[in-house]
């Protein structure tokens, strides 16, 4: 639809304040009314006393987009019902102190009445462009292109106060309470399509539904920068961890991994937040990939050293440093080195630092860069130190889109966030399959093993069970056999060959090395016999009362120069499983070398995971050893990702050590912790993951009427060129029928929006005709059908596009039938759409598919079509 369902909430054309009689209003209600009247609101504003007799009959004739409920907590349920009866499409329940049960009641009423409700426990919203201050957050912010969504009303007010003093404007400001039906995820989806919003600032205290949060954040970050300020870093649960992975994977670091994966950037303070927003909002910062190499141009050594030191602290590379001499008086010639650095392949961006030396003219120096601005291709950041004339120079630079800062440190940190944004965008564009490796795993056998352990009311697998589970996913493991006596240990060792290792097999022993429960390098039968008896006696003395079943015998791994690695998994609510990688061995926690990534992985994501760990430096040629076989290591990570996807019962896992050398990798020891997984009614596969894998299972063959064979599958990010070619091949009439606009091609933002989708919120099916074997015809997308969920997730809006060259082949019908089947499988109740009245072919198709066709009240050029998707 042209207008988002939440537009009446965020950009209402009319609103009504439902409050108590004058003289009985709360201080908060009085502040709201004062805020609304402090500036001219461009829509219609009415105030109504909910206790006046005859109010309902009168208000029924006063329709409004948005109802502002400035009422005591016990009157809010009646206020929500009243707003619905008035025909309001949205409501804002102002105020706090509403607990869970009362908040649930408000949510239920709003859902029953079909009302979009923001609140309770919110301080309101602002839309500066409309002159709307429906809040008690303070004065109306100045208009701008930055949207702010915050889970804390107090922090929202603080951010607005700071922004007012630093000339920062907003397109939208929303304070979201903890129990609001309209939550952060829904607001992100609106702001992703808002033309006034160029970047989004998000403050998060807690994430409850990670799948929805990640989904919306991914959509928003694919089209505009999203900066996240997360408060609350402490993790109180680390002491209960049963594996190294659970200790190493701190909750806050998992949140960082989640943000990286969806293309967002995390900041640590609101000053840093606005500095990063200033850089990411610069025209020079978009449209090109930016790395981590910064060139520095300065007229003073001291400030330059500060910038260089900060670059080292935040992990940037200072590729060039040009020291520009200060003339006796007047402007510093920054333009010449800045222009030269545009062609320097070792510099991704340029930072100019101006120190207020004697004779310096800050304004004239800034004007020289302003004149150079049209010729610049690389991001340019500036730091004009000082106040007075330096303040005017910073303003001059900002007016032409050149970010300027007061200190070298803040400028360098802002560039670090720009580099992180572009790095995270590469991660965002990865759409991995649930299975990363070629040979199919024995998933059924693995699930049977897990079910058997849980049926015995156990949660910790033995070493043999853990290795059997790894082997089911084709992860190389050392052979392991259990011995119940010294004699059995001798026989097993003799059969598998010396040297061997003995490891204690005892319930409740989390880490064998901690209780001296491992003996290595046993080279004959007598040594095995003696070591077995000593091992059991030692552990029984160290851990009295612990059931000791015997020991496992396994051959010693023969890799002389192997690196010891640690690969693991931790289930971190609400994000689900997270994969852990780093240096391994007995001192794994002491080394604390850990990198993390959320599954599912593909090979690129696996490579990035390895490179983020400190041990990555030792995986090449190292101390006379050949480089590690990286293909084998990446394949192992992909198999761990597959385990995380296919076994939702996994809670913790250590594969430590993994021995890696030039010949491959092998898991020497493993520990796995399980928990029963309760599947929610009506839920679909992979619900335990924060990121839904690419739906490879929807692929099928399509035969058209003329015999052309096409592949029908879900769209992927790398389909962008093919989709652009399809749009370019259409007639002007076909393009207008689909997009209701006279475009000739899709903008980069539209291409990203159409191809980089979240399969939980959207589905786009493409019909692909393969390239001709002789190369005479390239691969082509010849049709696309898609749906996008409406707020609430019960219905969706659909669209269809078919190549003119394949019209009349039945392709549109097949695409729609497949889309309807997937929407029904997803549990949607209805598909809706808008069709141009003159698009007779499309209207004929939807009628044949069982859609109802009605006039569209908001635009007479369209028909509203709808199809229930009941069983």
Automatic annotation (TrEMBL):
Residue ranges occupied by any N-acetyltransferase domain in the UniProt entry: 710-870
Family listed: In the N-terminal section; belongs to the acetate CoA ligase alpha subunit family.
Domain ATP-grasp: 467-503
Keywords, alphabetical: ATP-binding, Ligase, Nucleotide-binding, Transferase
PANTHER family attached to this UniProt entry: 3-HYDROXYPROPIONATE--COA LIGASE [ADP-FORMING], ACETATE--COA LIGASE [ADP-FORMING]
Name of the protein: GNAT family N-acetyltransferase
Pfam family, one: ATP-grasp_5
A molecular-function term among this protein's GO annotations: ATP binding
């Amino acid at each position: 639809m042209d207008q988002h369902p939440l537009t009446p909430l965020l950009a209402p054309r009319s609103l009504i304040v439902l409050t108590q009689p004058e003289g009985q209003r709360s201080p908060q209600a009085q502040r709201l009314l004062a805020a609304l009247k402090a500036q001219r609101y461009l829509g219609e504003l009415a105030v109504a006393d909910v206790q006046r007799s005859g109010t309902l009959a009168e208000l029924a004739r006063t329709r409004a987009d948005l109802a502002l409920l400035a009422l005591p907590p016990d009157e809010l349920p009646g206020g929500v019902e009243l707003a619905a009866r008035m025909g309001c499409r949205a409501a804002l329940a102002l105020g706090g102190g509403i607990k869970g049960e009362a908040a649930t009641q408000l949510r239920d009423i709003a859902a029953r009445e079909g009302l979009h409700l923001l609140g309770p426990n919110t301080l309101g919203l602002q839309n500066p462009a409309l002159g709307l201050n429906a809040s008690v957050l303070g004065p109306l912010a100045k208009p701008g292109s930055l949207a702010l969504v915050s889970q804390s009303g107090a922090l929202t007010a603080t951010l607005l106060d700071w922004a007012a003093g630093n000339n920062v404007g907003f397109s939208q400001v929303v304070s979201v309470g903890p129990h609001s039906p309209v939550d952060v995820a829904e607001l992100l989806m609106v702001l992703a399509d808002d033309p006034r919003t160029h970047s989004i600032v998000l403050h998060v205290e807690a994430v409850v539904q990670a799948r929805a949060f990640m989904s919306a954040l991914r959509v928003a970050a694919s089209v505009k920068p999203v900066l996240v300020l997360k408060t609350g870093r402490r993790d109180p649960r680390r002491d209960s961890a049963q594996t190294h992975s659970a200790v190493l994977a701190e909750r806050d670091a998992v949140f960082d991994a989640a943000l990286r994966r969806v293309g967002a950037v995390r900041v640590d303070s609101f000053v840093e937040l606005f500095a990063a927003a200033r850089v990411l909002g610069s025209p020079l910062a978009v449209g090109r990939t930016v790395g981590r190499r910064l060139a520095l141009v300065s007229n003073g050594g001291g400030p330059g050293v500060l910038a260089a030191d900060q670059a080292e602290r935040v992990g940037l590379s200072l590729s060039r440093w040009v020291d520009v001499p200060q003339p006796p008086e007047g402007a510093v010639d920054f333009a010449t080195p800045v222009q030269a650095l545009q062609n320097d392949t070792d510099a991704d961006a340029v930072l100019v630092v101006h120190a207020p030396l004697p004779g310096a003219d800050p304004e004239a120096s800034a004007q020289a860069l302003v004149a150079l601005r049209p010729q610049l291709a690389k991001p340019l950041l500036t730091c004009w130190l000082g106040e007075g004339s330096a303040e005017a120079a910073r303003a001059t630079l900002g007016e032409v889109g050149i970010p300027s800062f007061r200190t070298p440190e803040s400028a360098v940190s802002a560039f670090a966030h720009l580099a992180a944004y572009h790095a995270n965008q590469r991660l965002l564009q990865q759409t991995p399959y649930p299975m990363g490796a070629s040979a199919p795993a024995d998933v059924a056998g693995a699930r049977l093993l897990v079910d058997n352990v849980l049926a015995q009311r156990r949660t910790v697998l033995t070493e043999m069970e853990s290795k059997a589970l790894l082997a089911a996913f084709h992860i190389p493991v050392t052979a392991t056999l259990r011995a119940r006596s010294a004699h059995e240990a001798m026989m097993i060792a003799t059969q598998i060959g010396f040297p061997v290792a003995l490891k204690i097999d005892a319930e409740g022993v989390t880490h064998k090395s901690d209780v001296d429960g491992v003996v290595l390098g046993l080279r004959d039968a007598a040594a095995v016999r003696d070591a077995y008896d000593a091992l059991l006696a030692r552990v029984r003395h160290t851990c009295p009362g612990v059931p000791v079943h015997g020991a496992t015998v396994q051959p010693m791994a023969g890799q002389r120069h192997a690196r010891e690695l640690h690969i693991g998994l931790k289930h971190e609510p609400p994000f689900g499983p997270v994969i852990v990688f780093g240096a391994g061995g007995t001192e794994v926690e002491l080394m604390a070398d850990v990198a993390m990534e959320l599954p599912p992985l593909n090979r690129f994501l696996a490579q990035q995971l390895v490179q983020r760990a400190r041990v990555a430096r030792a995986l090449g040629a190292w101390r006379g050893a050949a480089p590690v076989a990286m293909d084998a290591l990446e394949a192992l990570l992909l198999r761990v990702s597959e385990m995380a996807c296919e076994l939702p019962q996994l809670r913790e896992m250590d594969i430590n050590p993994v021995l890696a050398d030039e010949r491959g990798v092998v898991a020497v020891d493993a520990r796995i912790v399980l928990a029963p997984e309760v599947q929610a009614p009506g839920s679909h596969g992979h619900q335990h993951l924060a990121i839904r894998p690419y739906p490879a299972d929807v692929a099928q063959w399509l035969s058209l009427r003329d015999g052309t064979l096409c592949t029908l599958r879900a769209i992927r990010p790398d389909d962008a060129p093919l989709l652009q070619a399809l749009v370019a091949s259409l007639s002007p009439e076909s393009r207008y029928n689909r997009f209701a606009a006279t475009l000739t091609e899709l903008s980069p933002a539209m291409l990203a929006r159409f191809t980089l989708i979240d399969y939980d919120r959207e589905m786009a099916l493409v019909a692909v005709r393969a390239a001709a074997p002789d190369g005479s015809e390239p691969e082509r997308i010849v049709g696309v059908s898609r749906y996008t969920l409406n707020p609430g997730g019960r219905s969706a809006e659909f669209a269809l596009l078919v190549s003119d060259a394949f019209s009349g082949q039945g392709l549109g019908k097949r695409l729609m039938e497949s889309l309807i089947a997937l929407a029904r499988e997803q549990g949607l109740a209805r598909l809706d759409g808008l069709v141009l009245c003159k698009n007779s072919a499309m209207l004929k198709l939807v009628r044949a598919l069982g859609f109802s066709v009605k006039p569209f009240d908001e635009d007479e050029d369209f028909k509203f079509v709808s199809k229930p998707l009941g069983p």
